[in-house]
Amino acid sequence: MRKQIAVSILVGTLVGLVGGALVAGPGDAWVLNGCKFPGSNPQLEYKFVSVGSTWTDAFNAGQQKWDTKTPGYGGWFTENASGTDTEIYVYDANYSETWWGLAEGGCDSGGGQPWYNDKVNIKFNLSTAGSMNTTERRLVAIHEMGHGLGLAHSSLGCSDPVVMRSDPTYAYDNCGTSDAPYANDVAGVDVLY
Amino acid sequence: MNMSSMALRRLAILSVGLLAGAGALVVSAQALGSGTALPSIVPSYQAVHSIERLVEHADRVVVGQLGDVVAREVDFGGDVAASADAGAGVPMAFYELHVHETVKGDARDTVVVGMIDEGGVNLPSALRLTSGATYLLFLRDRDSESAPGITVVEEFYVLLWGPAGVFDSGRGSEEFVARSTEVVAINEADVAHELTAGSASSGASEEAELERLTVTLDEVRAHVGG
Predict the structure, then answer these.
(1) ipTM above 0.90, yes or no
(2) What SS3 class is residue A68?
(3) pTM as predicted
(4) Which of B41, B125, B161 sits opposite A102 (nearest CB)?
(5) Which domain does B168 fall in, by range?
(6) What class, spelled out in words, does domain A2-192 have in CATH?
(7) pLDDT confidence bin for A4, thresholds 50/70/90
(8) Does residue A65 sit in helix, strand or coil?
(9) Residue B203 lies inside a defined structural domain of this protein
(10) How many domains in chain B?
(11) Given CB atoms, is B91 within the 8 Å cutoff of chain A?
């Protein structure tokens, strides 16, 4: 039944944004970026590549939140400090642009193709981190991990918070809640995995 | 920054030598994919909802025509150790911007604006600018201290909070349309009302979601020096 609903949602709305067709849920509750890790419950290893404590703390807190909010999956993320064949590579630096974080990966978009080589890069910007508090950095980390899982930007307001807004701290700033990922984000993951 | 034509020419010559290196790194980034499609880069920015706030935080507000790319470089953010890892970099392209009018900041005829280079990656459409087009841009200045990973240009600007800092030409030379649907009001005091209205209609219709704020230059000027 859940799969039937998921399929009917998947064929519902197609929005052309990044790299081709994106798939959106009802009312933009979630939007898929077209790529995902293979399998129904992939165990994702991540590696910090030259990352300081500011963002390792945020990332670690974020991955625990994803695991807690999606208990049916038995955990997503495990650090692999020495391995070279990990799924998520994490960086930070004083990048010149004004973004907080970004996710980077490649696949043939179209509703849930595997990431090429099962790899995603997540980058955090030290030059903008100074204006953020611990909670905001954790929300940014959760947001970038959401991209890694296969979610794209959404645009719901306070009545229905999503960490996948283009500004991941929106809900925290304007709605007074910071318990991301939210139900809409989890619903998107449920469609993917 | 005083970007004379000679300096720009020197920049262009320098960029020729750097293009090969930057290109190689972009290709490395494409190794994320298997070669059949470009990788996607999805940056996340702080949201801003009013013209007032944009003017307040911009170092420079200009109307200008985007020129050609004068240099490219992969930005490793000054992290020398990470620069050995191509995955750590963000490909950047630097464009000439021919300034027609300065609304805030120093008045110069030509400046350089750096953006993520869409030459080797897929970028969200809101971040794609077109050479030859005229924009109202809210910019933040960058130099070797604030952009330690950039060496091909000494001083340049970046878009203030990504798509929020970009306004496309509207009807007539005085009217511009926000790229970002997050920019919903001229004055900060009106933001809460506009966001509530937008939230109520969000998802109800695609048209409501795609509505973008239109501003005049006078409305922007009103917040400069005020």
Answers:
(1) no
(2) helix
(3) 0.83
(4) B41
(5) 5-221
(6) alpha beta
(7) very low
(8) helix
(9) yes
(10) 1
(11) no
